[in-house]
Amino acid sequence: MRMLNFDEKKFYLIGDTSVIDVRLHVSLLQVTAQASLLGVPVQPSIPVQILQVFMAMLVMDTWQYFVHRYMHHNKFLYRHIHSQHHRLVVPYAVGALYNHPLEGLLLDTFGGAMSFLITGMTPRTAVFFFCFAVIKTIDDHCGLWLPGNIFHMFFQNNTAYHDIHHQLQGSKYNYSQPFFSVWDRMLGTYMPYSLVTRRQGGLEVRPLKD
């Protein structure tokens, strides 16, 4: 992976924390609005909460896969909306949520709202889920393959997996985000990869398809 020069860093670092703050505040607004309307609900048992979080992950993955893929195949949407995120040729952590506002609304806000409403999570469980989803998304874009990373242990959709999508050769593959790779595998958009040790040190992710 190449290093960013000073001008690129200055460009990409604008609003780093603000995009994360906005995403979390929108999620919190969703759950607090429901809490204010319905009162404080009783928390279900731990197994039920775990099932709700897992189902929310599936709902969000399904929504984001198809919207994300459509944004790549629709030239107008890609040129005017999604291409902003793909300015990150070299992904980095807090650039994960560097999106066009409309993309943030379609992918994250709508996807989060559906995950919340369909699964019937309480506001407390939803806050945990949204924070977890944001942290996972940030890790997927960090560009670092760190030993002992718990996300790499439990999720095949990880830093290297999504890094392929940001490469030119992989831009039509690995649409799934942020948790599983099931839709890519089922619908033929999965691109395998290998991690190669670089001569200069560190690892480089390379696609295995021509």
Task: List key phrases describing it.
single chain; 210 residues; mainly alpha; two-stranded antiparallel sheet; 2 strands; globular; disordered N terminus; oxidoreductase activity; EC 4.1.99.5; Sterol_Desaturase_Related
Write a short abstract of this structure.
The protein is mainly α and 210 residues long. It contains 9 helices and 2 strands; from the N terminus they run H-H-H-H-H-H-H-H-H-E-E. It is globular, with a radius of gyration of 18 Å.
Explain what this protein looks like in three dimensions.
The chain is globular. The protein has 210 residues and is mainly α. 57% of the residues lie in helices and 5% in strands. Residues 54-189 form the Fatty acid hydroxylase domain. InterPro entries: Fatty_acid_hydroxylase, Sterol_Desaturase_Related. This is aldehyde oxygenase (deformylating). Its EC number is 4.1.99.5.
